[in-house]
From TrEMBL:
This is LysM peptidoglycan-binding domain-containing protein. Keywords: Signal. Residues 164-189 are annotated as: Disordered. Residues 1-25 form the signal peptide. The keyword Signal applies. Pfam families: LysM.
Amino acid sequence: MASQHKIYFLSCFIAASLLANIATAQTQPIVHTIKQGETLSALAKKYSTTVGDIMRLNGMNSNSKLQIGEAVKIPTTATNIAETPKSEPAKPQSAITKQPEISATVTDVTYKVLKGQSLYGIAKQFKTTEKQIIAWNNLPNDKIRAGQTIIVGKKVLEKSTIPVTPKPQLSKPGEDKPVVAPPVTQQTTKSEELTVLNAGSAKVTTPAETKPIPAPVKEAIKTEPAAIPASAKYVESEGFFANYFNHKDRNLTTAAGDASIFKTTSGWTDKKYYVLMNDVNQGDIVRLTANNKTICAKVLGPLPDIKEDSGLLLRVSNAAAAVLGIEDAKFNVTVSY
């Protein structure tokens, strides 16, 4: 009889212990580490609980946001204790590596218009269209002026919203590294003089076909004299420099020979024509005759010392060649100076 009582009390003790363990297990929350793309509703479905219970257990509100690597407590239920695999222990906050959150900001790319430039040429230079530049700048038409700053593109700047703390670098005692200032970028301003784009052009192109080439060579001559009205004699037919040439001088030197073309941005609208020629002073005005037409041009300097210029008398700007009706890579010309 006594042994039966012992067995009864022992059975009750074991049953009570099991119930206590089950109750303790039910009160211990499951710890889940947030992964990319997970949401509260997905967690609630996964662990057979509700979004509200998860929020209450973690002290969340409507403004709370889940962070990758964050440890979230999941309330235990009879279902998720049996079905949910044992979760990984939560990592210490210092050991969590957060994925950077990237935000993008769009900023304007601006450009200051230089003298003689057209909207078409600038659009080509920045690989966009005239229509797009007009829209960006709310321009009434395609007219622009020298010195005007316009938007020529858009740049996307990306930045992380989570600050990245670099690993501290310990320097040796007494070691003092010098502070190196960032290099200064010098911005050059193009003068109103002509820019020679390509001294080896083989064909005359219209203004729409002229493409800027990197690293232009600037003209090293003095500023142009005051402009002459377009109605003045010779200017309409022979260009801007026509009235600076002495048409009545009978002692002019005349030479004839082969000529070729170089590309420029000048001359298409301002009628400023230029030549590259040896044995003539830089800045002198010469008169060219070819294809039964005549123009006046300013000497930029000598011909480049390159193989392609061997045997040439001069090179003439593509705008001037267009006025003379020249389309060949090489043609005959007569020059007076």
